[in-house]
Amino acid sequence: MQFTELSLDRRLVQSIDHMGFTSATNIQELAIPVALTGKDLMASSKTGSGKTLAFLLPALQRIMNSKALSKRDPRVLILLPTRELAHQVYSQLRLLVANTKFKAVSILGGENFNDQVKTLARDPHFIVATPGRIADHLTQRNLYLNGLELLILDEADRMLDLGFAQQLKQINTAADHKRRQTLMFSATLDHNEILDIADELLNEPHHINVDDSF
Ligand code: ADP
Ligand code: MG
């Protein structure tokens, strides 16, 4: 399926075109339409199958379509287990937001805390982050998630392996409101710990499992 067939804003299709992509991968073709309906989603597919754009594109589309509840709170929070993975997602997000009026930042563990406080005070629309540092900023009231519209957990199984369950629950509670949508991506969807966290964070999720990669 071509990206032009996925009901995405023309600016997004242009950005994807500039990245050199024309047809969607399987996971993109299946996940994007579901995510665009506003439903919660639990999805898995192999490494390298294009999961990043499967959540970034509907995230941008949703924010382009919606009116903010709060002008100041972030609208989309994307969580990843490690700095390296967060950096990869942030690089793709920056290419996509470049063609829009939205601001994206990354908030990662191991970086200067006070610099991050200043970054957060500039009211970004998108935050790409590792869970521990976001939990710290919530605890210290440098960040409020009351206006959050979309929470995305990428590599959820690895976040749990690294012991982030408690932080994920704290973030979930801080962002809890009726309009929020939650998308969860994971290599495996059938471990008990994954099912428990999904049960707590997701609301009647749609399940997608793609076995072949492209
Ligand atoms: P995953 O998260 O599933 O491991 P990524 O989102 O990191 O996969 O994508 C893997 C690679 O595939 C990246 O280099 C990305 O730029 C590329 N890619 C993503 N979507 C497409 C597409 N539709 N067509 C071709 N390449 C793509
Ligand atoms: Mg990935």
Highest CATH level, the class: Alpha Beta
Low-confidence stretches are: none
In percent, how much strand structure appears in the residues? Answer: 5-15%
Provide the structure class: alpha/beta
Using the alpha-carbon principal axes, give the shape. Answer: globular
What string gives the helices and strands in order?
HHEHEHEHEHEHHEHE
The domain tally reads: 1
Q: By CATH's scheme, which homologous superfamily applies? A: P-loop containing nucleotide triphosphate hydrolases
Got a strand count?
7
Output the number of helix runs: 9
Kindly describe this structure.
The protein has 214 residues and is an alpha/beta fold. The protein has 9 helices and 7 strands; from the N terminus they run H-H-E-H-E-H-E-H-E-H-E-H-H-E-H-E. The chain has helices at 10-19, 26-36, 51-65, 83-97, 113-121, 131-139, 156-161, 165-174, 192-201; strands at 41-44, 76-79, 104-107, 126-129, 150-153, 181-185, 206-209. It has a 7-stranded parallel β-sheet with strand order 3-4-2-5-6-1-7, with helices on both faces. Helix 5 (113-121) links the parallel strand 3 and strand 4. Helix 2 (26-36) runs parallel beside helix 3 and helix 6 (131-139) packs across helix 8. The longest helix has 15 residues, at 51-65. It is globular, with a radius of gyration of 16 Å. It starts with 9 loop residues before the first helix and ends in a 5-residue tail after the last strand. The mean pLDDT is 94. Adenosine-5'-diphosphate (ADP) binds next to helix 3.
